[in-house]
Specification:
Elements lengths: L2 H14 L2 H8 L3 H15 L4 E3 L4 E3 L1 H27 L5 E7 L1 H18 L3 E7 L13 E6 L7 E8 L1 E5 L1 H7 L13 E4 L6 E6 L2 E6 L5 E2 L2 H9 L4 E5 H10 L3 E2 L5 E2 L2 E7 L7 H16 L3 H7 L1
Parallel strand pairs: 3-4, 3-5, 8-11, 8-12
Antiparallel strand pairs: 1-2, 5-15, 6-15, 7-12, 7-13, 9-10, 9-14
Helix pairs in contact: 1-2, 1-3, 1-4, 2-3, 5-9, 8-10
């Protein structure tokens, strides 16, 4: 738990009179404010606030600790101001969460370029496909590829992730090449647990089409399915950032070129705009600019 942020949330809730007003002022979600309050009370071991549907009031301990929290925040702001005056360089450690495939294919090189530019910043990259709790895991930024966002977090869309249906030439030589999406039911389709596990979504001329698929291999990590696809095990949906070089090299073949696979958003998720560290704000801007220019995802789609 970020105890300094939790103390700031506590003070703002008291001063604003309720969690909703505090959330708006801090530019957090209301759920995040409630979570910080709960974490703070759990750490202290006692309630600080009486909560009812109509009003909010301090407990005896809350009244005792409120001025101490205010003094602590004032000191923290003074220390931060002194640090900023002493150096214009970004610094600090940022914990970033990402899926394995995106971290390997793109994010690791991007953060390497960022820390080379800002050597006083350290990146702790947490790789997992699970949707981690940003507060409990002390995650500053989660990069997720999805169209289903957590309403309790603030999201910034960085780019669009296109996917491609593909198979190895060896598989197609044995089983033939599907010409229509409906033919996928006759093929061994390798499915990804977090994206269309049994129903793949396509679009042609603005018309959506969902196809039920199945096969002998499923996984919760797309890189595992990629290796199985390269081995000729079946057909899979893969993010373009992972397979574009393999398509160009002929190790994989794109299928159903006239049908577009559902695109997903690449989002940066974080808990608060107001409490964002300067290094995190700079990293966000850096990642957004790099995704737009290096590479151009739509251009990759036409070249793959």
């Amino acid at each position: 738990m970020d105890r300094l942020t939790a103390a700031r949330v506590f003070v703002e809730v008291v001063e604003r009179g309720n969690q909703t007003a505090a959330a708006e002022h801090l530019e957090m979600s209301r759920a995040m404010v409630s979570r910080y309050l709960g974490e703070l009370e759990s750490w202290i071991g006692a309630r600080l606030l009486h909560r009812t549907t109509r009003k909010l009031s301090l407990t005896g301990l809350g009244e005792e600790l409120l001025p101490r929290c205010r003094a602590m925040l004032e000191l923290a702001d003074e220390l931060q101001d002194a640090g900023q005056r002493a150096s214009d360089d970004l610094s600090g450690t940022l914990r970033i969460a990402s899926s394995q495939s995106f971290a390997q294919a793109w994010l690791a090189r991007a953060v390497a370029a960022f820390v080379e530019r800002h050597p006083r910043v350290a990146i702790d990259l947490q790789v997992s496909n699970l949707a981690v709790n940003l507060v409990e895991e002390r995650i500053d930024l989660a990069v997720r590829i999805t169209n289903q966002l957590d309403p309790n977090l603030i999201a910034r869309r960085l780019a669009t992730c296109h996917s491609v249906l593909c198979a190895a030439p060896s598989y197609l030589a044995r089983h033939g090449t599907p010409q229509q999406p409906q033919e996928l039911s006759q093929h061994n389709c390798l499915t990804y647990a977090y994206f269309g596990h049994s129903l793949w979504q396509f679009e042609r001329d603005g018309e959506p089409l969902g196809i039920a698929v199945g096969g002998t291999i499923s996984a919760n990590e797309s890189t595992v399915l990629l290796e199985a696809t390269l081995a000729g095990a079946g057909i899979s949906l893969q993010p373009l950032y992972s397979v574009a070089p393999l398509l160009r090299a002929g190790r994989l073949q794109a299928l159903l070129p006239h049908y577009r696979v559902e695109a997903l958003g690449i989002h940066a998720l974080y808990g608060s705009r107001r409490q964002m560290l300067p290094a995190l704000r700079a990293l966000l801007d850096f990642l957004a600019a790099r995704l737009q220019a290096d590479p151009d995802w739509d251009q990759l789609l036409t070249q793959a």
